[in-house]
Write a structure and sequence with these properties.
Elements lengths: L1 H35 L12 H31 L2
Helix pairs in contact: 1-2
Length: 81
């Protein structure tokens, strides 16, 4: 059983690293979207809506990956108790 627990701990560590990376990527994308939508920097008709749409799709995908990782982390932590 200890070998299985060790494998779970390794998986947990990898998932925690993945979650940390995804949080950073989400934060960076959020900042970029905010800058691109700042009407004090550009007139509304000059806003890069196509780029923001693509960035928001990336943001949603990364958020989904983070949700899956966090769910897996919770499950592994429960199993390791």
């Amino acid at each position: 059983m200890s070998l299985q627990n060790e494998m779970r701990r390794v998986r947990l560590t990898n998932l925690e690293y993945t979650a940390k990376r995804l949080r950073g990527e989400i934060e960076a994308l959020s900042r970029l979207i905010c800058i691109n939508l700042d009407c004090s920097l550009k007139r509304p008709e000059d806003l890069p809506i196509g780029d923001v749409d693509t960035q928001f799709d990336e943001l949603k995908a990364k958020w989904g990956e983070l949700a899956v990782a966090m769910s897996e982390i919770s499950r592994l932590e429960e199993e390791l108790k």
